[in-house]
Design a protein that fits this description.
The protein has a five-stranded antiparallel sheet, with helices on both faces. Strands 4-5 form a two-stranded antiparallel sheet. It is built from three helices and seven strands; from the N terminus they run H-E-E-E-E-E-E-E-H-H. The two termini are about 15 Å apart. A hairpin with a 5-residue loop joins strand 6 and strand 7. By secondary structure, it is α+β, with helices and mostly antiparallel strands. The chain binds nickel (II) ion. Nickel (II) ion (NI) binds next to helix 2.
């Protein structure tokens, strides 16, 4: 099934999410549905809070960047209980958007590389270094599990300028080409 995507202002986007174990009901189906939901909304990442579930799970699809970045080629993955335990000192700006903040795109500063431990959909453990576009997407999705969205990372002045637009969005004034709630 395709889930409606929760929009800025919803409580689920602000609550920290909880870790899950292999007993989580119908996890395989949920992951499949999250890939479907992300795909139909043309997103490159989707975190469980964005479909109203406060669990530590997200999916990413970096394949659109496969031409520029070899690591992104056919890169579609699910991440469970991730933990970013190291970030690079070096940071860069990158223009981000979010399915939960339709129509908004802002330059966000983040570390260029991260080390992250996580479980895949079979609960196999991984510990990897990520750079480039994957590091960007993973940090964005990870933030969702912490109850953060990308506008939280903007300079205070920029955030102030976006305040009314965000308020309007939270009251239902936005356009999205996908199902929302
Ligand atoms: Ni997002």
């Amino acid at each position: 099934m395709i889930y409606p995507i929760v929009i800025f202002g919803a409580e689920a986007l602000r609550k920290p999410s909880v870790a899950i174990d292999p007993e989580y009901p119908e996890l395989k189906k949920l992951i499949e549905d999250m890939f479907l939901t992300m795909g139909q909304a043309d997103g490159c990442g989707l975190a469980a809070p964005q479909i109203g579930k406060n669990i530590r799970l997200f999916v990413v699809d970096c394949s659109a960047w496969g031409e520029e970045d070899e690591n992104c080629k056919d890169y579609r993955r699910a991440f469970i209980n991730p933990e970013i335990y190291e970030v690079s000192e070096e940071t860069e700006l990158f223009n981000e958007g979010c399915l939960s903040l339709p129509g908004m795109h802002e330059d966000v500063r983040r570390p260029i590389a991260i080390k992250m431990r996580y479980l895949d959909e079979n609960f196999e453990e991984h510990d990897e270094l990520f750079e480039g576009f994957r590091a960007r997407v993973l940090q964005h999705e990870y933030d969702h599990l912490e109850g953060k969205v990308f506008t939280d990372r903007l300079a205070p002045l920029r955030r102030q300028l976006l305040k009314s637009k965000l308020l309007a969005m939270s009251k239902g004034k936005y356009r999205a080409a996908y199902k929302t709630k």
